[in-house]
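Changelog-linked ticket: magnesium ion example.
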Amino acid sequence: MKLSELKAGERGQVTAVASEPVIRRRLMDLGLVRGTELEVLRFAPLGDPIEISCKGLLLTLRRNEAEGIAVDKLEVVESRQASWASLLRGHRFGKSA
Amino acid sequence: MSTQKNITVALAGNPNAGKSSLFNALTGAHQRVGNFPGVTIEKHEGYLDYKNYRITVVDLPGTYSLTPYSPEEIVTRRFIIDEKPDVVVNVVEGTNLERNLMLTVQLMEMEVDLLVALNMMDEVEEKGISIDLDQLEQLFGSHIVPISARNRKGLDDLLDHVISVSEGRIEIRKNKITFSPEVEKAIDKIAALLSHERELGAGANYRWLAIKLLENDREAYTEVQKYPVWVKIELALQEAIKECERLHSTDPEALITEDRHAFVHGAMQECVRKPKATRASVSDYIDAVVLNRVLGLPVFFLVVWAIFQLTFTLGKPLMLALEFVFDLLSKSVAPLLPEGMVRSIFVDGVISGVGSVVVFLPNIVLLFMGLSFLEASGYMARAAFVIDKVMHRFGLHGKSFIPMITGFGCSIPAIMATRTMKSRSDRLATIMTIPFMSCGAKLPVYVLLAGAFFPPAMAANVMFGIYLLGIVVGLWTARLLKSTVLKSDSEPFVMELPPYRWPTFSSVIFQARMKAVMYLKKAGTLILGAVILIWVASNFPRSQALDTELANGKARIEASSVAPELKAEQLQKLEARIEARQLEYSIAGRSGKLLEPLIRPLGFDWRIGISLVTGLAAKEVVVSTLGTIFSIGQTTDNTSLSAILRSDPAFSKATALSLMVFVLLYIPCVAAVGVMKKEVGAWKPVLFYSAYVLAVAWVASFITYRLALLWM
Ligand SMILES: Nc1nc2c(ncn2[C@@H]2O[C@H](COP(=O)(O)OP(=O)(O)OP(=O)(O)O)[C@@H](O)[C@H]2O)c(=O)[nH]1
Ligand SMILES: [Mg+2]
């Protein structure tokens, strides 16, 4: 499936990057190569662009750019998403426990 | 040793790795630092003397790879290849090693004398990340020096290493990473072909050139295509593409990048231990609010609105205090000076003219502090994310937002900041919107007029409205351009969001002080010069006839038999009347009169016309010209310009609004036009654009004036 089809909170692994050359190059420079695991964090208020997290970084890209990235959906084991529920459960900020 | 040795050091690294911070810490310079990618767009040089060495440091724009696309990224590669610095210091962000080391690998491939500065060690420690430096050095073959540019830690250690490397006392092992066998085969083949091409020069790095060719690097192509050997190379490239497709179902370019990623990933596994992190950090929680689907846009508008509110509300009492000081000054200086020319040039010229600009110092400093807080905090890139869709509708780009916000400070750095955009049409469209983002120099005009003609509660809203109008016209212009002359591909929006960082207290204070000094310098040089010129132009030539009329009138009043107080009043009125007519007779007056028919429909008289013309030098000059011209022939002793304007029959609420709109929209100052020409590359579009903005300003002011007359 395409990266643009993942919903917020879902994870995927990149299987191919086939955007237009310039964009593809930039995507690959930023770490989106085959095998990279990523998580879709959220969509911007107006539905575009998308924010993802991969290799500990936050990246943003437009939907049409995300369409060129093929992914396999992965199980969600651990999410980077900040949720109010986890805050209420006594989540410690940033620091390791 | 008596003679100093010279060493040139280039700072290369990913955007936002802290190169400029390191540059500033080393050389004591004040290059712009900000917490978003793409702050530096040009190379900057500085030097320091250290242990008998003169070390020249070159700060370069950040780049993600050495096959760069945007104009500012090419600077880095060209510098390293063409200028051959003695040592290349690769600044890497310790908290973001995996991505940063990708560039390190590419620098290794270039076989330059490489030193790695592992920056942001303070954050690394705080996050409890442990990095096995020895092992990392083994893998990468060059020394790694941990530093913290912001806290000035590890700088001496870094400099000692720089010296050792340049003297060859540290061996850079120039490790090579090994790519997939098919790629290696192709590299060897192409490198061999290249080495037979004698004209390429013996110093060329064939392996590197071969890699770049396989990566589809345009610069490498143009370099090699000149030579006859190209025919053979092209065949080899095609063969490599086929092989990679057959065995890996991808192309060499992707395969090379993947191999680099694999190498770096392996190194990370071996050398870096991150604590088993709790899942979300403070940054993530802030983002959960700031980038929220519902709250994102309201937060964005709130932030921008807060900056303006801060600028005006907090600035107001300070401005009044300064106004008071200048008023006091002119009242106490005037009697000390001989009556006539000298007093006039000081009181009407220097104090009213320059003073009318200087009183806005607090507003300007506050505005810049607000903007620099945005830049330093990390919100800039987020704002681009939130607003991208809106910008896209107008044919712009989320990234256009960063130069546009900078444009609220000053258009010149803003226009230059568009260099981070790759697509030329997007870049041009963004450049053309920037002058509509009302710059700091126009702020005094609004504060003056809105303050003089509107109650305090309304004034800030009027100004906010003016800023909004600028944004709307700017976006509309972009859309017009993109749908006509600048039709083309749009810019990719792949961007990194940096972690939030607190701006340091000292850097905020420092920024504020620097802006204040710059503003005062401008007031003391450019604006003072303009003020004196305007004073001269509005006092000369003097009409003989009017002088005699004044003398006669004075004599008549002296001779009359009225009470002394009345006499004084009559004298003052007479003087004011004659002064006003002298002004009309002067060069400024006569040229203003020529202009008047054009601007009469907007509610401007010739005096305002003159201010608009002189305002082309710098927008503050509009205010100082008004200050000078309107204080000539003034009867009241109040020297506050807003009081003078309020009492002048030529000015009304409608005129004030119309003037604000005109100043917002008309041609930017000469310096900005110059920079625009430089960035656009030709005069024709710039002149065309100037005509366009003038027309827009005229029409918009006309509508404003007529509507205001109807309603107020
Ligand atoms: N905590 C911490 N922050 C740092 C350090 N060095 C730099 N920063 C911050 O990192 C951000 C980026 O710094 P810059 O010096 O502008 O980075 P740059 O590499 O010049 O960035 P570009 O010009 O965009 O390529 C700023 O917010 C700095 O304050 C450091 O040693 N520790
Ligand atoms: Mg920089």
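Closing comment: Example verified and attached. Chain B is about 65% helix and 5% strand. Residues 522 and 528 of chain B are 8 Å apart (CA to CA).
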